[in-house]
Design goal:
alpha/beta, Aspartate Aminotransferase, domain 2, 38% helix, 12 helices, 374 residues, Aspartate Aminotransferase, domain 1
Length: 374
């Protein structure tokens, strides 16, 4: 008999939605040409690309000219951050994704989240000085699922930028890595107030290979790589039209937030089980997305726990997949300042295709962990 398996690592990559998969396959069969080619085949690809750009702009409430497609969120984050890391101070949090954190230089100011996994707005604003050029804070933390007050930061920053303008200082710009947000938070860029924002296809139930950087109109960035004039010269290279088109369609579906309540109910089941069995549940209970639970266990070996879960058919992680293989405690966990006996951590993330049967399997496996490994 084939062992039942369940996937609880949606924060690393969501499964591809069958509707989006079928759309992607249909495009493979009808549009394969280079979108920069002038013949009819190329122009068909160009039309798909620009339709995807317009659809995305409509979904996010911005101009199509403000959307730049890349191949990954890492590329988009690098494009946003490196432009400013060279010319001034950057303020960021201590639990950003590696594609932000690893650009860090000595001139950066790093704000540590509180023990609930939240970045305090005033702590960010207080670090601004005359040399500050950029703030970058992720919207939803990929390990803890906590939601940062991006609109609160942008509101305060708007006031500060008015003062800077009067004093002849350049505006402080604001970027957010919003990769984990669109399945659970409605994105309206006109209301959010950021200058740049990153999204990824593989986090919204679309095939990997596409991402975007929103860049507010009037803001000039320098390319990091050089080639043709694709993406207005900002990210040259032949665009992955099929993945971009699927990404745009998936983003529309994710922004309906139609799965929110069912996922929230599953989350509460897991939280209730954990709290009644002495398992630590980390991060704010109020300011968090559903579908992301970070647990801590007392006196269990990390590798032993992950191996046990995998052998039981449960796919989970200890944290960000981009930092897997490292034995260091993650920065997100460090900010929690947990008691020393909490030696082991699990990130359980789920979503649109998680079933009640899979939740039952997860809970029974966690019960086995408490019975056999503690």
């Amino acid at each position: 008999m084939t062992k039942t398996k369940a996937y609880f690592d949606y924060a690393a990559a969501t499964p591809v939605d069958p509707e989006i998969r079928d759309y992607f396959v249909s495009l493979m069969e009808q549009s394969w040409a280079n979108p920069s080619s002038t013949h009819s085949f190329g122009q068909k690809s160009r039309s798909l690309l620009e339709n995807a750009r317009q659809s995305t702009a409509t979904t996010l409430n911005c101009k199509s000219s403000e959307i730049y497609f890349t191949n990954s969120a890492t590329e988009a984050n690098n494009l946003a951050l490196i432009n400013f890391a060279k010319i001034g101070r950057v303020i960021t949090s201590s639990f950003e994704h590696d594609s932000v954190a690893n650009i860090h230089t000595d001139s950066w100011e790093v704000v540590e989240p509180d023990t609930q996994g939240l970045v305090d707005v005033q702590s960010v604003i207080a670090r601004i000085n005359d040399k500050t050029r950029l703030i970058s804070v992720m919207w939803v933390n990929n390990e803890l699922g906590t939601i940062q007050d991006i609109q609160g930061i942008s509101h305060k920053l708007k006031e500060i930028n008015l003062e800077r303008l009067e004093n002849g200082l350049p505006r402080v710009l604001f970027h957010t890595d919003a990769v984990q947000a669109p399945n659970y938070i409605k994105i309206n860029l006109q209301e959010l107030g950021v200058d740049m924002l990153t999204l990824s296809s593989q986090k919204v139930y679309a095939p990997r290979g596409a991402a975007l950087l929103y860049v507010r109109d009037g803001l000039t960035l320098e390319p990091l790589i050089y080639g043709g004039g694709q993406e207005s010269g900002l990210w040259p290279g032949t665009q992955n039209v099929l993945s971009i088109s699927a990404f745009a369609k998936a983003l529309v579906k994710s922004q309906r937030l139609s799965d929110y309540e069912s996922i929230e109910a599953m989350q509460q089941q897991i939280i209730d089980f954990a709290q009644s069995n002495g398992i630590g549940v980390n991060g704010s209970m109020e300011s968090r997305v559903p579908g992301n639970i970070h647990l801590s266990f007392k006196n269990i070996d990390q590798d032993e726990l992950l191996t046990f879960m995998d052998l039981q058919g449960i796919a989970v992680s200890s944290g960000s997949s981009c930092a897997s293989g490292s034995n260091k405690e993650s920065l997100a966990v460090q900010c929690l300042k947990l008691p020393l006996e909490y030696t082991t951590h699990l990130r359980i993330t789920f979503g649109r295709f998680t079933t009640k049967k899979e939740i039952k399997l997860l809970l029974s496996t966690l019960q086995e962990v408490m019975n056999n490994l503690t």
